[in-house]
Write a structure and sequence with these properties.
about 30% helix; two-stranded antiparallel sheet; globular
C-alpha cells in the first residue's frame, strides 16, 4: 500500500516536470513528407512580361496578393483563440500549432516537426532586419532553448499564440520580445 501512495505523489511531480521542460507544442510528428524535400511547399511561378516562365505552374491558384489576403483572413478567424498546450484548433492552440496551421492552410506546406525548437531546424536563420511576410520568428523565453514561435507579417509585427492572451499580433520592438528574440527563420528551399 505504501508503494501506491508514493506513485500517486510522484505522478503530479512528473507532470509538472514535463510542463517545465517542454517547449511550446508537443513532440508529436505532424503530417507525412516525401523523402525528396524537408518541407512541402507550393511555389509561386516567376512572371516575366506578364507570362509565367513555367506553364505548368499557371494552375497555381494563389498569387502573392491572394496569399496575403488568405493569411490575414486566417489571422482574423483565429485571433483571440485561447492558448492550449498541444492544441491545433480554434478551440485552443499553442504557438507551434498556430504556425503549423497557418502553413498548412495558407502556404499548403507541412512541417516534419511539432515543437518550436524542432521547426527551427527546418529553416535557414535570417536576421531580424531581413524578415519578410511568412518568415518565422523564434524566441527563448523560459529557457536556453527555443520555446516560442510566431509568423512574421510586416513592419515588425508578427502573429503568435500567447500563453496569456491567445492568438494575437505583437511587435518585435516591444521590450519583452526584443529581450527574448532569438532568430528569424525562412523555410529551406
Amino acid at each position: 500500500m505504501k508503494n501506491h501512495r508514493h506513485i500517486i505523489v510522484l505522478i503530479p511531480l512528473w507532470i509538472l516536470c514535463l510542463a517545465f521542460t517542454s517547449s511550446c507544442g508537443s513532440s508529436q510528428k505532424v503530417g507525412k513528407r516525401e523523402k525528396a524535400s524537408k518541407v512541402q511547399q507550393r511555389r509561386i511561378p516567376k512572371i516575366k512580361d506578364g507570362k509565367s516562365e513555367n506553364p505548368a505552374t499557371l494552375k497555381e491558384p494563389n498569387s502573392e496578393k491572394q496569399r496575403n489576403e488568405e493569411l490575414y483572413a486566417f489571422i482574423e478567424k483565429w485571433k483571440g483563440v485561447p492558448h492550449r498546450m498541444g492544441g491545433m484548433s480554434t478551440r485552443g492552440v499553442d504557438c507551434s500549432g498556430l504556425v503549423i496551421q497557418i502553413y498548412k492552410e495558407v502556404y499548403q506546406m507541412d512541417f516534419k516537426n511539432r515543437r518550436a525548437r524542432d521547426i527551427y531546424t527546418e529553416t535557414i536563420a535570417i536576421a531580424k532586419e531581413d524578415l519578410k511576410e511568412g518568415d518565422l520568428v523564434f524566441f527563448k523565453i523560459r529557457s536556453k532553448n527555443i520555446d516560442h514561435i510566431g509568423l512574421y507579417l510586416s513592419d515588425g509585427k508578427f502573429v503568435h499564440a500567447s500563453s496569456s492572451k491567445g492568438v494575437m499580433i505583437s511587435n518585435l520592438e516591444e521590450n519583452y520580445f526584443k529581450k527574448h528574440f532569438f532568430s528569424g527563420g525562412r523555410i529551406k528551399p
